[in-house]
Amino acid sequence: MDTITLAHGSGGKLTHDLIEKLFLKELSNPTLKELADSGVVNIPKGKIAFSIDSFVVKPLFFPGGDIGKLAICGTVNDLAVVGSTPQHIACAIIAEEGLKMDILRKVTRSIKVAAKAAGVKVITGDMKVVAKGECDGLFVITAGVGVAKNPSRISIDRVKPGDKIILSGTVGDHGIAVLEARERLGFQASVKSDCAPLNGLIDSIITKGVKFMRDPTRGGLATTLNEMVKGAGFGIEIDEGKVPVSGSVKAACELLGFDPLYIANEGKIVVVVASKDADRVLKTMRRHRYGKDAAIIGEVVTGHRGKVYSKTSIGGMRMLTMLTGAQLPRIC
Amino acid sequence: MKYIDEFRDNKIARSLIGQIKGAIDPGHDYIFMEVCGTHTMAVFKFGLKDMLPGNVKLLSGPGCPVCVTADSYIDTAIEYASQEGVAIATFGDMLRVPGAKSSLEKERAKGADIRVVYSCLDAVKMAEEEPDKKVIFLGVGFETTAPTIAASIIEAKSKGLKNFYVFSAHKTMPFALRALLGDESLKLDGLMLPGHVSTIIGSRPYGFIASEFGIPCSITGFEPIDILDGILKLVRQCQKRKADVEIQYDRVVHEEGNKKAQRVIEDVFEPCDVEWRGLGVIPNSGLKIRESFSDFDSEKVFSVVPRKVRSGNKGCICAGVLRGAKTPLDCKLFKRECTPENPKGACMVSSEGTCAAYYKYGKG
User: Fold this and answer.
1) Whose CB among A4, A212, B27, B241 lies 3.0–4.6 Å from A272's, allowing a Cys bridge?
2) Judgement on whether residues A98 and A178 belong to the same structural domain of the protein
3) Under an 8 A CB cutoff, do B46 and A313 touch?
4) Model's pTM, two decimal places?
5) Tell me, what's the ipTM?
6) Pairing between strand A65-66 and A61-62?
7) Do B153 and B112 belong together in one domain?
């Protein structure tokens, strides 16, 4: 059968065929194979990190990734930025009746590849089918468990004025790549999504003095920085000229009237470190494939508490507020 | 990036500010109006206000097309959307503009077929691909957008489309400026004229501002260096006590404008009286679709009368803001009841609106 029908989600024979011939085949591991109602695993003593995220990106495939890769990387990154080692993933798929089987196959393979790259296992899952028109092709939900390495060390409470803010690379790539794929804007230089698992990069720096981390996804860098200062006794000042933005993203933003600081990323982290550790962390990040364009973009300041200010290219200052409204809908 | 980085250069900016400081009389307040919403946004985005000497004051004008669109236009568009088989195609900015009682966004949530397009030609394509739909494009904008919308109407005609319409609320700048300058309470030392509009119409249509009103003018680009250079040109004119229409944005604007674009506008549109939010009805400041293209004119094809309702946006001072008589800080609703998430007035909705700029860049 080359399309998904309601019967594939009924729990009957077609569901079982799909599980065995597609999901088990691609994602196979001992826990998943048991096909129990829950995946049962051992975890080391201590705290765990637990996270969930839903993915509704349109289109399902875009330069640099697809909904499957995004679903794995998104949850892996949410687990990694709080200082845990991502290990187990639960994955639910909601498919629309009439979806091409080939698309589901491609997405499942992409989940497999991304999970392998991130070093996580999909240990349980679910699949439902809704009638045509009741969802847009395919939605994916992933939840994940990470084993906390040293959770108390990663906390906004440790951030102090004078600390440096490091960004792991260029901003805006994901949002622009998805927008371009969706609207077929026909830019000459195609922009690729930065969608990537960041646990490896985070592993390489976590013991080197990292005080706090966030991944600037929806709402972009500006919104993430605002979340960091909200209710805090400090402010943040960044130097816009130091924020890496690729030429293609810059050009696309100029053309469309967007600000790259507000465009979504799926493979970047913002790290806060003490000033004395900044160079060491920066050097380590730059050695990693997902951190080669890392840069110190600003610092934590005593002034303008709870606010983020940005030095503009011509030497003026502007306040960066949170993203208001939806700049680009359905990007993740 | 070429043509961007050199216009955002710190050293050049400092040199221009130095020259502005050298040319001004410290005892005099210079009030310059930036007519265009894109100028307003750039002024805030690059932090220009705080870099300029304290006695050089920038005032925002009526040059944001969404902001000057009257309530009644939105109400009519909503009425269109409620008709059987109609799909509204619009630029995204229009979605949240409050009409008297509702907005297109709210109507879309209730089920009306309202879609965002990035170009009017996308709306033509929509009409082609969905022959059962009557596609009405909301044609809002100044001389800058009018040529592409005129070109889409010509395209739709050449394709023989019978289901594509434009609801035109196009406005033209020179007559509106005349009306604005007629307000004697507005004391201006100079006008920063819109770069994009002038790319189309050239510099001649503004001649009256210098000759009749004696106000210095500079047609200015949108990068920070352009804006500082534009301000310097105005300051120099003030210093010499003369008033001219100078072209700062000379890499794209020429005295005679873009003749081809002017012809396309002329072919499809003709001048009409039109209502501006804040300025009222200004004779000859609008563009309506000519009789020869009336099959594409939604106002000729659909008989829709917006229901008369009392506006729910009491206390909104957009009208004053658009005339340069008030700033968002004078408004009781600003940042309290009126925010980008829940706008009460059009100036908070548009990305080029003065209130949105004040809000976004944390003024007030």
Assistant:
1) A212
2) no
3) yes
4) 0.85
5) 0.77
6) antiparallel
7) yes
